[in-house]
Amino acid sequence: MSDWTSGYVSDIGYTFGYYRELCPTHAKQAFLTKGLVFPKIKTACELGFGQGLSAVVHGSSSNIEWYGTDFNPAQASFASGLAANSGSPCSLYDDSFQEFLSRSDLPNFDFIGLHGVWSWISSENQRAIVEFVKQKLNLGGVLYISYNTLPGWSAFAPMRHLMTQHANIIGSEGEGIVNRIDGAVRFAEELLKSEPNYLKNNPNVAKRLERMSGLNRHYLAHEYFNKDWNPIHFETMASELAAAKLTYACSAAMAEHIDVINVSDEQQELLSKISDPILYQSVRDFMTDQQFRRDYWVKGLQKISRVEQLEQFRLLRVMLTKHKSDIELKISGPRGSITLKEEIYNPIIDYLALNPATKISDLESELTKRGFDIATIFQAVNVLIAKEAVVCLQDDAACQESTDNAKALNRSIMAQSKYGVDVNVLASPIIGGGLQFSRIQQLFILASLEGKKSPKDWAAFAWEHLQQIGQKLIKDGKAINNEEDNLAELNRLAEEFKSKGLNLARDSLII
Q1: Which of 439, 433, 443, 421 is nearest to 78 (CA)?
Q2: First vs last Cα of the chain: how many Å apart?
């Protein structure tokens, strides 16, 4: 019998993750930030989509045709069900990468993405992905790929190997993957208590193990306990993708575009002497001790002038994704946190709070009265995007075309929230992507849609459905045991949602 899993964990479902780096609207802004040409996206594909949340959200909230595959039939079935409920034209399969490459019914793509796949699959599957990109990515098209990176994983890699070895040898199949993971974590903790020289020479391993032990076991199963787990250097990835004629474009993590929180002045000076882009990124990874890269690559890199860059920036529409009172004027990176200047950021945040879905040129017209220039606005807006406090919007035509599908998907996701399915994102057609709304907030929205007008009624509605499946709230890491305290906490959350979250749901066309 053939092993269709290829050594990948299949007996436990992947988490319901949403990844904004897979959203073409986000990718377009990253390219603009670096002064690069971004193509018109008509067709897109996600390889190894997990539970399919990103693919379905993007397919439902835009006019882009999305395709994708994930080898796990249970995950592919869940994703296909979501897509069917929304009416979106997503075409999702459970093919292996090689089978997907062999299909004759696929178009070529303007955008191909894979998140959290490359480092956890065999070299054979990696070659299939490169060949797929080579054959199916259009000229000018964009690839998004994320992967575990050296040198950031160099210290912990031996510990991960030992834990996987323990799970495979000491654990048994009958225990299930979760129990085997728990056993491996306990064993690793006991090993470190014995003060091995490995720990003395790598003191940060203990902190990483402590963080790891508190993570969701579904996530750990796929992150750490696959047969294949291969962190690589950036130069290795560049060599692999050269076969598909791809050139590195930029990081998909907007915070990595902000030098001051990533590298020191001395480090920036050293980097300025490096003209080769591959060596530049390799050296920067050592400076930041990078362990996970999220990158955009392009088939045919083209640059735009500073004048054109600012002209395109002025045409953007943006909106806040948080209530202004929840936006902390700080941003963090490998070098720590810096405080943002109130005199620059508060006027921008205040204007966007009063003017949802505003064009940058309108923001500029208002702020030039206060002495702002477009370069300052450009930098500040990009910092707010990096903080996930601001998001760029897609064009009106795409929004109008996708609104019905997005709202249908949201109704489907929110209906499942009543039964304990924890999908913490909803589709926004104004963005062309997803926004975070917790399961409890989704229950409040459902209550509102059913005509319940007061936060007290929303709280009672949420509590009714939590009780039906025997769930209670958790506060400060502890379960709230009695009904009175659960209702009190739900009432607090409902009041907060009324004052901060409901308008965002409306402005973003979530509801």
Answers
A1: 421
A2: 48
Which of 293, 207, 196 has the alpha carbon at shortest distance from 248?
Answer: 293
For the record, the structure tokens of 366 come out as 């208002």
Q: Whole-angstrom Cα distance, residue 99 to residue 22?
A: 23
Instruction: Answer for the pair 92, 78: CB distance below 8 angstroms, yes or no.
Output: no
**Residues forming a β-bridge with 479:** 474
Cis peptide before 429 (omega within 30 of 0): no
3-state secondary structure at position 5: coil
- Contact between 131 and 16 under an 8 Å Cβ cutoff? The reply is no
pLDDT at 156: 85
- Let me know: does 37 contact 71? Beta carbons within 8 Å: no
CA atoms within 13 A on the CB side of 359: 9
* ∠ CA 343-346-350, rounded to 5°: 140
φ and ψ at residue 220, rounded to 5 degrees: -60, -40
Contact 33, 254 (CB under 8 A): yes
pLDDT of residue 10: 41
CB 407 within 8 A of CB 511: yes
Residues of the chain with pLDDT under 70: 1-15, 171-177, 217-218, 221-224, 226
Tokens at 428, concatenated: 């926004």
Between CA 52 and CA 79 the distance in angstroms is 5
Q: How far apart are CA 369 and CA 364, in angstroms?
A: 9
Tokens coding 356:
């949802």
pLDDT value for 14? 54
Helices (H), 289-395: 306-315, 342-354, 360-367, 374-386
How many Å apart are CA 315 and CA 240, to the nearest integer? 36
Q: How far apart are CA 511 and CA 504, in angstroms?
A: 10
Task: Tell me if 86 sits within 8 A of 412, measured CB to CB.
Answer: yes
Task: Give the pLDDT confidence of 250-303 residue by residue, as tens digits.
Answer: 999 999 999 999 999 999 999 999 999 999 999 999 999 999 999 999 999 999
At 159 the pLDDT is 82
